[in-house]
Design a protein that fits this description.
By secondary structure, this protein is α/β, with parallel strands linked by helices. The protein has 7 helices and 7 strands. It is an enzyme of class 1 (oxidoreductase).
Length: 241
């Protein structure tokens, strides 16, 4: 039976690959994002089983309105919206800007997941899954983005306790360096790319499809006893290396 799957940030990069993985399984997928063009393009490419809904996951009113239009049953929620907002903001030169930059990362990477999960909670059913996209940065002491992802992992443990009695699992998938995404805004130097690859045991970057496959597994019937976990997809890269 086709499941109802929500993928926030499902129009590009890892989110786009996750959308494709569930669509290929015959699931009904709803993708959200702040930018209309990429999510509508992704929905059009995948076909009738995927639809797009513009929604800023940091805005409680937009999240609430989105949830009001959902089917009564939601089987899988993938919290993929987020990213390092420092790449889009000016460097902090005073306390006000510093506070704004930290809050932007927390909003994008933690608050989006908290709001969307709460908004669809009553629709999540036994055998369902909530899967959030974390980062290797959570364990690297790498500033506001890493701290936000660390907070996401802690929240996931808390959330798993709330969802468990309903038969719903909650996990985090934490990628390392992944090729073919917008994460670095085309600002990654070849030297830095080689450094990131050199930290892995596999000698290569990961792919969005590999992250998507892990997410898809965690939402499957074979993963019903896996919850409150962070699963790394990083080629064996050690966070402190």
């Amino acid at each position: 039976m086709a499941r109802t799957v929500i993928v926030t940030g499902g129009g590009t990069g890892i989110g786009r690959a996750i959308t494709a993985a569930f669509a290929e399984s015959g699931d009904s997928v709803i993708i959200t994002g702040r930018r209309r063009e990429p999510i509508e393009a992704a929905a059009a490419e995948e076909g009738a089983g995927v639809r797009a809904a513009v929604c800023d996951g940091t805005d409680p009113e937009q999240v609430g309105a989105f949830a009001d239009g959902l089917p009564e049953r939601v089987d899988v929620l993938v919290n993929c919206a987020g990213g390092n907002t420092d790449y889009d903001r000016e460097q902090a030169r005073d306390l006000a800007t510093l506070a704004a930059n930290w809050r932007a990362n927390m909003d994008a990477n933690l608050v989006t997941a908290v709001l969307m999960t709460e908004a669809v909670r009553d629709r999540l059913t036994g055998g369902g899954s909530v899967i959030s996209i974390g980062s290797i940065a959570a364990d690297k002491g790498s500033g506001p983005y890493g701290v936000a992802k660390a907070a996401l992992a802690s929240w996931n443990v808390y959330e798993s306790g709330r969802l468990g009695p309903r038969g719903v699992t909650a996990n985090v998938v934490a990628p390392g360096y992944i090729d073919d995404t917008e994460f670095f805004r085309d600002g990654l130097s070849e030297e830095r790319r080689e450094q990131l690859i050199g930290m892995t045991r596999t000698g290569r970057a990961g792919t969005p499809d590999e992250v998507a496959a892990t997410v898809h597994f965690l939402a499957s019937g074979s993963a019903r006893q896996i919850t409150a976990q962070v699963l790394a997809v990083n080629g064996g890269a050690h966070p402190t290396r």
